[in-house]
Amino acid sequence: MSGGLRAEQLQVRLGGRRVLDVETLEAPPGAITVLTGSSGSGKTVLAGALAGSIPAAGSILVQERRLSGSPSQRRKLGLAAAVRDAHRLAGCTVEEALLVAAASRDRVAAVLERLPQLASRRQLDAGLLSGGEQQLLQVACAWVAQAAALVLDSPTVGLADDAARAVTELARQAAQEESAVLWLEQDLRAAPEPHAGTLVTGRLEPAAGSSGEAAAASSP
């Protein structure tokens, strides 16, 4: 695969136990790649490993460039992520958080227009947002970066229908802009596209009938 997001031999150990073991994962540019998994299957661990918030062994590439370092460093190299259960954004207003993350002020204006729930809170300290609003802000901060790869960890869970639709449209626009969008989801009905694979206790299995190009299973 040329460009897009690719991870190889990705492993995470927590408390001395291996909780993620993915041989190969690929998300091509210009598309939404959906991986499903039940609660506890490792979706958030995978998202954190890709984002750099969870230490992991293996290689992660975006547009053939190897990523390392913190989430902010990886963002500069082309990967932006919205990870569930991440540290709450605080100490700045909603608008300030977006401006720090954004590729341009126009991008911030665009996301606030799409997400009126955040627009009405733009001058509020981000730490005072509700759980759902904080989730929206995490997604918005990832989207405004206009990164080559966008990782979304169950981004619509618990959101009202209008907010969930807006998040889905943001993901579709990112794909139209040739970003590689990796959408991790528990409920397949909430996914914007057919799923390419399934996480099962930290291992990745391709979907039935999949060519394996989007996601390849790890060996036992």
What does this structure look like?
The protein is an alpha/beta fold and 220 residues long. It has a domain of 152 residues: Rossmann fold, CATH 3.40.50. Helix content is 31%, strand content 29%. It contains 7 helices and 11 strands. The strands form 2 sheets. The chain has a 6-stranded mixed beta sheet with strand order 6-7-8-3-9-10, sandwiched between helices. The chain has a 5-stranded antiparallel beta sheet with strand order 5-4-1-2-11, with helices on one face. Strand 7, helix 7 and strand 8 form a beta-alpha-beta unit. It starts with a strand and ends with a strand.
From the alpha-carbon coordinates, what is the Rg to the nearest angstrom?
16 Å
Q: pLDDT below 50 for ≥5 consecutive residues: which ranges? A: 211-220
In CATH, the topology of the domain at 29-54 and 69-194 is named Rossmann fold
The helix fraction, in percent, is 25-40%
CATH level-4 homologous superfamily of the domain at 29-54 and 69-194: P-loop containing nucleotide triphosphate hydrolases
Spatially, the strands of the biggest sheet line up as 6-7-8-3-9-10
Class inferred from helices and paired strands: alpha/beta
Termini Cα gap: 24 Å
Counted beta strands? 11
Provide the CATH architecture of the domain at 29-54 and 69-194.
3-Layer(aba) Sandwich
The profile of the biggest β sheet is: 6 strands, mixed
CATH class of the domain at 29-54 and 69-194: Alpha Beta
Which outline best applies?
A: globular
> What is the helix tally?
7
